[in-house]
Design goal:
Blueprint (H helix, E strand, L loop, with lengths): L6 E2 L2 E2 L2 H18 L9 E5 L4 H4 L2 E5 L13 E6 L4 H16 L3 E6 L7 H22 L1 H15 L3 H11 L15 E3 L2 H9 L5 E4 L15 E4 L2 H8 L18 E3 L6 H5 L1 H13 L4 E6 L7 H16 L3 E6 L4 H10 L3 H4 L15
Parallel strand pairs: 4-6, 5-6, 5-7, 7-8, 8-9, 9-10, 11-12
Antiparallel strand pairs: 1-2, 3-4
Helix pairs in contact: 1-6, 4-5
Length: about 350
């Protein structure tokens, strides 16, 4: 297996940084085990939430549910890790586009296989990131000294990618029994890296961020970006090594695609805009949809938006829809911030189950 942590796009990773990456992998392997030699069974079942609208099949690893067969002619894997609302939204957009084009989307959530080292490693890193995100909102000094420099410069460095590549070797075994010809679209870099480590032949890495960061590299995949600025920054590896000009990404490794948006939203834009104009003409309230991820990192911003809109809501000039996914605690925190929400809001938690997440 190629060691993807030593040389990245023709750029040598220094011995010190490489040794640090190796130590990081050993640390996770010691804590969570190393299942690189495991031969996990893989099955396919209808996705509980996305099969009905989008024909999405769920790939299950090591849990025995579902059937064995894959559609190798029209199948396409959407690899994700359920780390943040944004990544999941992009995953659904990819599944939507694939479905509209006649493909069978396979949903592969690498953070949903509790028996595997893969999920344990991702879960641990997810917990760390969520904690850091929350702390950054509570403590300005932590945000200034630790969080912002880490997100804008730490994740940007090519050496950080070396560490991720080593950790992703512990995630590869979940792809072992999946047909290697099935294309994979990773909406986070780890599914893309893990797929490549296990020999998947056709891997696309849909980069979610417009700020160029080496964190998002999965060499061997086709990298997608949403803006021209991101294309230029990623192409030249802008600022990804201190006081050094790096060799660029090969042109065929990077594609500008525009924004990742669900087919259903794009195909209905004209009609939706007509209906919005009619609502305005009829004096109906303007509707606002607020979507908040589980870390609640922007809760204070959302609270401010809601407080600003509340007078218009009471006058029937505005209506607010708040989507907190399966993170009810975020709703509870919003109610603490804005006590009047208890009196004027209508909730839809009739199927809530604290023992498991929504889809």
């Amino acid at each position: 297996m190629k060691d993807r942590a030593k040389i990245i796009f023709g750029n040598d990773i220094g011995k010190k940084a490489y040794r640090k990456a190796v130590r990081g992998k050993k640390k996770y392997a010691k804590k969570f085990g190393d299942d690189s030699c495991e031969n996990y069974p893989v099955r396919v079942k209808k996705n509980d939430c996305l099969y009905e609208p989008l024909g999405v099949e769920d790939i299950r690893v090591a849990d025995g549910e579902g059937e064995h067969s894959f559609d190798t002619e029209k199948g396409l894997i959407v690899g994700n890790i359920r780390m943040g609302f944004g990544h999941y939204r992009i995953s659904i957009a990819m599944a939507s586009a694939a479905h509209a084009l006649g493909y069978t989307p396979y949903w592969m959530d690498l953070n949903s296989y509790p028996e595997t080292t893969c999920t344990k490693v991702i879960g641990a890193q997810n917990d760390l990131y969520s904690m850091g995100s929350r702390l950054s909102q509570k403590f300005k000094l932590f945000n200034k000294i630790v969080w912002e420099p880490l997100n804008y410069e730490g994740f940007r460095q090519l050496t950080y990618n070396a560490g991720d590549q080593k950790n992703a070797e512990l995630m590869a075994s979940v792809f072992r029994n999946i047909p290697k010809e099935l294309p994979v679209i990773g909406t986070h870099v780890w599914p893309a890296q893990a797929a490549l480590h296990e020999g998947m032949k056709y891997v696309v890495n849909a980069i979610p961020d417009n700020w160029p960061m080496a964190l998002h590299f999965a060499e061997g995949s086709v990298h997608l970006v949403q803006t021209h600025q991101a294309y230029m920054g990623y192409r030249i590896l802008n600022g990804m090594a201190k006081k050094k000009v790096l060799k660029p990404m090969p042109a065929d490794s990077l594609k500008y695609t525009g924004h990742y948006i669900d087919h259903e939203l794009v195909s209905n834009i004209e009609k939706d805009c007509e209906l919005r104009l009619k609502r305005k003409e009829n004096g109906e309230p303007m509707r606002f949809l607020l979507t908040i991820g589980g870390a609640g990192a922007q809760r204070e911003l959302f609270s401010a938006v809601i407080k600003h809109l509340l007078p218009s809501v009471k006058e029937n000039k505005a209506a607010i829809y708040i989507n907190i996914g399966d993170y009810k605690k975020v709703w509870d925190e919003l109610k603490r911030d804005i006590p009047s929400l208890n009196m004027i809001s209508k909730t839809h938690f009739d199927k809530w189950d604290d023992t498991k997440s929504f889809c």
